[in-house]
Design a protein that fits this description.
There is one protein chain. It is built from no helices and ten strands. It is mainly beta and 143 residues long. It has one domain: Sandwich (Immunoglobulin-like), CATH 2.60.40. Strands 1, 2, 3, 4, 5, 6, 7, 8, 9 and 10 form a ten-stranded mixed β-sheet that branches. A hairpin with a 4-residue loop joins β5 and β6. It is elongated, with a radius of gyration of 15 Å. It starts with a strand and ends with a strand.
């Protein structure tokens, strides 16, 4: 997560990027990001579309794949993002942004940001899970 620690005031909006680093042959992700809904609210990245969306990143290019889930639930306090590349797109390696969440501070306090992630790789036509270490973050909301 970048930044891993963030401070913002009530009513202020700030982006948090969910990034992947040192990955090899990534082809799909299924990520849940959990936050304290009494302190934070996700701002809609696409108001034209119904529901609350986040902004897909460019590491797994949505133009070369299929975006299954792009959903934020401000009542329950989670974001759900699922994307896969599609043939003939090649798997990607290295570092990049998977998605960006714009959070708005709603009340003073500290919200932990927790990640649950499943990554899938594609090597020589074979699909396999990629083990990953997730690093959450913290947002401190000040009056």
């Amino acid at each position: 997560m970048s930044p891993a620690h963030l401070e913002l005031g009530v009513g202020d909006i700030a982006p948090v990027n969910v990034v992947v680093r040192n990955v090899t042959d990534l082809y799909a992700v299924d990520i849940h990001l959990f936050f304290d809904a009494s302190l934070l609210e996700v701002q809609d990245a696409n108001p034209v579309k119904s529901g609350i969306q986040i902004a897909p990143g460019t590491f797994l290019d949505p133009a070369q794949g299929y975006l299954f889930k792009n959903y934020a639930d401000n009542d329950a306090g989670f974001v759900w993002f699922v994307i896969t590349l599609l043939h003939p797109a090649p798997a990607v390696s290295g570092e990049g942004t998977l998605f960006t969440v714009n959070f708005q501070g709603q009340a003073s306090g500290t919200s932990q940001l927790r990640l649950k992630a499943q990554l899938v790789g594609l090597t020589e036509g074979e699909v396999a899970p990629i083990s990953a270490v997730t690093q959450g973050g913290t947002i401190v909301i000040t009056p």
